[in-house]
Design goal:
Layout: E1 2-5, E2 10-15, H1 21-37, H2 50-58, E3 62-68, E4 71-79, H3 83-86, E5 94-102, H4 111-125, E6 130-136, H5 140-149, E7 152-159, E8 162-169
Parallel strand pairs: 5-6
Antiparallel strand pairs: 1-2, 2-3, 3-4, 4-5, 6-8, 7-8
Length: 170
């Protein structure tokens, strides 16, 4: 368990349990709804379901939930491989952050930065050299957010109807 200070309270970041799958799903879906309200369609609420959360909780990924005053304020997943997105660049020296979501009711409390910092520390604790993540290429604000945090752009990949930017931090 990790505790991080925010402007007025402490965030507790801990491993999520199977019983918390609906809470994580809610964080994903609410983030997707917020993104969609801004005209950003990288996530769609209807694309997420509780079985996806359970799969991450049981497939060797590390799933985390962040709480502030006992309320879920964020979540992220660390995977130890990502050949689908990273292709030939996938390696054993990296940890991959996925499904990074912050409760929009807590905007302005630097929760996102706290989650990224903690994920980075967790990845390094496992002896990994690189922290990696991806986001939709068209989401300019999120791309800038990751770059401001210190992630370096690696390249853009293209799927069917989508493009994603790959980022890495050493």
């Amino acid at each position: 368990m990790k505790t991080s200070e925010t402007s007025n309270s402490s965030i507790v970041i801990r491993s999520a349990s199977l019983s918390e799958a609906p809470i994580i799903l809610n964080l994903w879906q609410n983030s997707a709804k917020w993104l969609n309200s801004k005209g950003i369609y990288q996530w769609r609420p209807e694309f997420f379901n509780v079985d996806q959360v359970i799969e991450f909780l049981t497939n060797g990924s590390d799933v985390y939930i962040a709480e502030l005053n006992s309320e879920a304020v964020g979540t992220y997943i660390i995977t130890w491989s990502d050949p689908y997105i990273w292709g030939e660049l996938d390696n054993n020296d990296s940890g991959y952050i996925h499904r990074f979501a912050v409760n929009r009711d807590y905007i302005g409390k630097k929760i996102g930065y706290t989650l990224l910092k903690t994920a980075e520390q967790q990845i390094k604790t496992k002896g990994k050299t690189f922290v990696r993540l991806d986001c939709m290429a068209a989401n300019n604000k999120l791309n800038a957010y990751y770059q401001d945090y210190g992630f370096n752009y690696i390249r853009t990949i293209n799927g069917e109807g989508w493009s994603a930017n790959l980022y890495e931090k050493q």
